[in-house]
């Protein structure tokens, strides 16, 4: 694609063919800001480079730091259509690429029954009849009967698109292999039809919540950025930009308190969306002062696990006032007897707080279990599966790619 013409460093949006590209990093920052997304320089630089280099962006980081929103805002500011592939474990690649429209094929064969009968009418035996039908295969396995799913839709789109491949860490290796072909060539091979090559390079955004390591091969194909919680200034800007109704002075303190909660290394740290929710909640309650009482009463807006809640409750007084005494009722000994209700073991909570392995095991209990019984390299035991997910062998990427190449020759 042609770069944006940059006479005088200024481009009139939506008028030139390159209107969906950015002039420079500042332009990127400004246009995202106008769309309500406050990026920092690093993120804006990555997005700017992606649009110029035609490379996918891989955003890794904790939940709620604006990874998905970035793709949505990118579509908004570039005027491109957003196509989204939400990844999940056990996802069938046909759901990501394309399916044959079985219903439509059946309908056509019903309507064309007479015609089909003519084809086989004078066949000597069953074998010959099958042969004759098989010769008509290409009629029914043609583009007409193809149902594109997000990846093929992105590649075959007449218009330039943004393709969001969300939470790719939840996908299996098989799907990751399919993605490799797509991300390096921007093409998809359909054995019955041929290779579909992108008319316009899509802006691809992959996100990962870090529940497992992604293959080196996948990372190599992408501009990689770790997106962490924003600094105080930017988080405050984000809160203020959301019209939460909370006075600025209180918002500043609230951001500080949330940052303090993040230090506690909870199983699920509060993220930007939680800070926004908390600000809205406090504004609705008409709170004039952030006291330990009012914060404790509304803490469930930002902390979602019982054990985290206990930990956070204990910390609130000292976060509000570093010299505060911890009330006896919230002190030691309160927690036990609770917190066993999630149906899986918590004994590592303190040891590996909010770590990726912990999230992997807990956010989705059973994710490494049962569904994969029997498949090579997978175990039906949850803890084994978890181990496998933690330690991805270095050669995994190339193996996945090889497997993918075998499956769908170009
Ligand atoms: N940089 C940002 N500017 C504006 N809003 C943001 C930003 N980052 C996060 N948010 C807010 O946080 C919410 C959660 O972000 P999301 O993209 O869903 O997180 P993730 O995909 O990383 O889990 C968004 O809907 C948005 O309201
Ligand atoms: Mg997301």
TrEMBL record:
Transmembrane segments: none annotated. Residues 1-23, 320-410 are annotated as: Disordered. Pfam families: AAA_5. GO terms for molecular function: ATP binding; ATP hydrolysis activity. Residues 53-231 form the AAA+ ATPase domain. SMART domains: AAA (SM00382). Residues 342-366 have a biased composition (Basic and acidic residues). SUPFAM superfamilies: P-loop containing nucleoside triphosphate hydrolases. It comes from the Bacteria. This is MoxR family ATPase. It comes from Nocardioides guangzhouensis.
């Amino acid at each position: 694609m042609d770069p944006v013409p940059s006479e005088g460093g200024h481009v009139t949006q939506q008028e030139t063919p390159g209107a969906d590209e950015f002039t420079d990093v500042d332009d990127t920052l400004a246009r995202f800001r106008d769309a309500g997304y406050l990026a920092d320089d690093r993120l804006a630089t990555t997005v700017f480079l992606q649009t110029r280099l035609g490379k996918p962006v891989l955003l890794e980081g904790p939940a709620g730091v604006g990874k998905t929103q970035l793709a949505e805002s990118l579509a908004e500011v570039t005027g491109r259509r957003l196509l989204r592939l939400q990844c999940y474990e056990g996802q069938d690649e046909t759901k990501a690429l394309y399916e044959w429209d079985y219903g439509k094929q059946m309908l056509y064969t019903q309507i064309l029954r007479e015609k089909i009968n003519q084809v086989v009418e004078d066949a000597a035996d069953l074998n010959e009849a099958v042969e004759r039908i098989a010769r008509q295969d290409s009629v029914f396995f043609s583009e007409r009967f193809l149902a594109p799913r997000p990846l093929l839709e992105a590649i075959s789109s007449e218009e330039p698109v943004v393709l969001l491949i969300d939470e790719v860490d939840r996908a299996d290796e098989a799907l990751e292999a399919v993605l490799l072909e797509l991300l390096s060539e921007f093409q998809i091979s359909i054995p019955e039809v041929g290779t579909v090559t992108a008319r316009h390079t899509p802006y691809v955004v992959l996100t990962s919540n870090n529940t497992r390591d992604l293959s080196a091969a996948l990372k190599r194909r992408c501009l990689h950025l770790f997106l962490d919680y924003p600094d105080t200034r930017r988080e405050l800007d984000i809160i203020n930009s959301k019209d939460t109704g909370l006075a600025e002075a209180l918002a500043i303190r609230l951001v500080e308190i949330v940052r303090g909660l993040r230090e506690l290394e909870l199983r699920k740290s509060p993220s930007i969306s939680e800070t926004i929710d908390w600000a809205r909640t406090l504004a609705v309650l008409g709170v004039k002062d952030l006291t330990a009482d009012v914060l404790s009463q509304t803490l469930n807006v930002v902390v979602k696990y019982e054990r985290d809640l206990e930990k956070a409750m204990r910390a609130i007084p000292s976060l509000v006032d570093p010299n505060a005494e911890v009330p006896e009722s919230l002190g030691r000994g309160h927690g036990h007897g609770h917190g066993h209700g999630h149906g899986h073991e918590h004994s590592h909570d303190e040891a590996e707080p909010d770590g990726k392995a912990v999230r992997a095991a807990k956010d989705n209990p059973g994710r490494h279990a049962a569904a994969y019984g029997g498949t090579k390299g997978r175990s039906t035991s949850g803890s084994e599966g978890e181990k496998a997910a933690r330690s991805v062998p270095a050669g995994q990427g190339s193996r996945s790619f090889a497997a993918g190449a075998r499956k769908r020759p170009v």
